[in-house]
């Protein structure tokens, strides 16, 4: 017969025949091993520990404030510090900042268990491992990776496109390296926002969001007034422009058909080039 005091001070009676000094081992009478949860043995006080669900890696945009969050349960009177692994530099301790780089700030609301390292105007060189450390003996820490990215916007086939009159202008804008798909992509023609419901008709946009976001601007039955500068402006990335020329008749230029580019050099133009060369001799 053994007596155990639980975590709440409640006396528990456990029957055990042939018990040894270790109550977690199997008994000699063939009874299976008996295990006692920590809470029953009064070992529930784990001390400070990290909530990994709220202390994750972060991807941030260049120039947009980044925040690394560290949630610590049962902190008590211990201090939370942030350390940059690249140079083993102590950035903050508690609410105090220990770096001359004023972009780094420690933020903590006393009503929460979150300790935030805020980085203003982050640059790509700020990418790397940051450690949230608790001043226990010995210290415990949780590492997070900050990835600072600069989204890349491209328009396929640019910077100039030559389109046959009557063909379909198909402009494809691609946004890469964005931590999340742009909430919106704005298209303009000669700095004026495109109206998809204009009387002209035949103008539409198709956007596919994902790790790489693609926006297709379609202008059917291209006319001379459709020439000009088209700009794709993602909400979270730099804009990109392309100059479109709508041509009438055959011209020795790069022509776009069905979104693809190919070179067209009519025989008459080639012959004229040879004649001019011979005359120069």
From TrEMBL:
Signal peptide: 1-21
Gene3D superfamilies: Immunoglobulins (2.60.40.10)
Highest taxon in the source lineage: Eukaryota
Keywords (A to Z) from UniProt: Signal
Protein name: Ig-like domain-containing protein
BP term (GO), one: synapse organization
Residue span(s) of domain Ig-like: 48-134, 151-248
Pfam families: Ig_3 (PF13927), V-set (PF07686)
Keyword Signal (UniProt): yes
CDD domains: Ig, IgV
GO cellular component labels: neuron projection membrane
